[in-house]
Amino acid sequence: MLDAIGVRSAEELFRHIPNELRFSAPPLPRGLSEYEVLQLLRRRAGENTPLSRWNSFLGAGCYDHYVPAALSSLVSLPQFVTAYTPYQPECSQGILQAIFEYQSFICLLTGKEVTNASLLDGATALGEAVRMALRLNRRGWVLLADSVHPEYKRTLRTYLSAQECICEEVPRAAAGTLDISAWRRALSREVSCCVVQAPNFFGLIEDAEEIHRLCRTTDTLLIVVANPLSLALFQPSGDLICGDIQPFGCGVNFGGPGGGYLAASRRMIRQLPGRIVGRTVDAGGNDAFCLTLQTREQHIRREKATSNICSNHSLQAIAAAVYLSLQGSRGLTHTARQCVRNTQYLYRKMKGLSGVTLPYGPGVFHEFVWQVARPAAVLEALRRKGILGGYPTGKEFPGLDGGILSCCTEKKTKQDIDAYVSALEEILHGGQVRV
Questions:
Q1: Same-domain pairing of 134 and 116
Q2: Which region, left, alpha or beta, applies to residue 124 given φ > 0 means left and ψ of -120 to 50 means alpha?
Q3: Do 347 and 285 fall within a single domain?
């Protein structure tokens, strides 16, 4: 290589770099055989405890749903597991059709006419939805429900930090749901969009239709963040619907990756960020798929681009399409209802526990908040018993000091829930934690 570039030595190659900026030889360990490397990796992997070994009630945006066995096999096909970007339709019909099916599923679930080929995650999907609304009506005010996921709120503020835009939070009612009177006072014709989450971060089912009616009086767009599994039971009213497809076959995987979805009406399609796969016919009259309306910075002048998103989560989107195909509408509805049943059972059991307070009512989808004295100590005591009790809410929501958000998916059995409640009762009344 030195000969090819006309340099006599490595020292000459790096001569222009000052000595104080050069590194000495890195302290690399001795080389290992293949077997030794494998043993080392196994020891390192063994330091992690799989979620399957815990009785877990964690939720808060990342949910432990059952992933059908066939899904892993299908999405592992080399046709799908590729870094290739499907620009050339003549090379990519299989991937493009799979993504088109994903888009069709999202439109069916949301009741909207168009969606894209996925975004990075639910939080960035919300950021893109709000920027989309700002472009559509050229206003500079955003109203944000304080019951939206805190990580989504932080991501949204990052998206808006470089724009001349005011983002104002609207407080929730005492019941934990939207305070319609507060929204009525905050709304004006200067507001570009309102953002609500339904079900909200606390698991409470929201009536977005009421907010949507208010928004129509000022020509304000309503953006709804929705857990896509909940759409099997409730279809929220909104102009744009977004969220994370993680519940659809993506697993928990240490918290990621998931994939964002964003659905809207046909009239908004030219402001929709990211890739969109369309179906057409070729010269022979056969169905053909291709990327269409690519208003991304790679394809048009940067100042005209609707988004700077360079990629999407195609494999996660395909996994979601496979999951929905395997479930079918009946299976998806059954899964969503089982989540509700399990959560209602846990809610009733918690309600009978001395030392536990339930600040909100039982109208929840698959998670709810309960309060207890010394929540960190309670959660640690549960962890020692092999139970992940939930997500502490006090840091993000000071009004919910002592709050713990617990979730039940369809994987929870009656025995799992009973074991959780029994362990909690023993901790609270057996002197393990002073309350």
A1: yes
A2: alpha
A3: no
**Contacts with 67 (C-beta within 8 Å, 6 or more apart), sequence order:** 249, 250, 251, 323
User: d(Cα 353, Cα 423) in Å, to the nearest integer?
Assistant: 11
Q: Provide the H-helix boundaries in 20-139.
A: 34-45, 69-75, 93-110, 122-137
- Model-level pTM? 0.89
Quickly count: other Cβ atoms within 10 Å of residue 1's Cβ: 7
Residue 319 belongs to domain spanning: 69-324
Of 280, 308, 324, the last residue of a domain is: 324
How many beta carbons lie within 10 A of that of residue 40, not counting itself? 11
- Answer yes or no: are the C-beta atoms of 399 and 371 closer than 8 Å: no
Give me 75's structure tokens.
Answer: 């999405």
Mark whether 368 and 274 lie in a shared domain: no
Contacts of 19 (CB under 8 A, 6+ apart): none
Domain identity same for 377 and 413: yes
Alpha carbon distance 299, 301 (integer Å): 7
pLDDT in tens, 265-316: 999 998 998 888 999 998 899 999 988 876 555 556 666 777 777 677 888 9
Instruction: Please report the pLDDT score of residue 170 as a whole number.
Output: 97
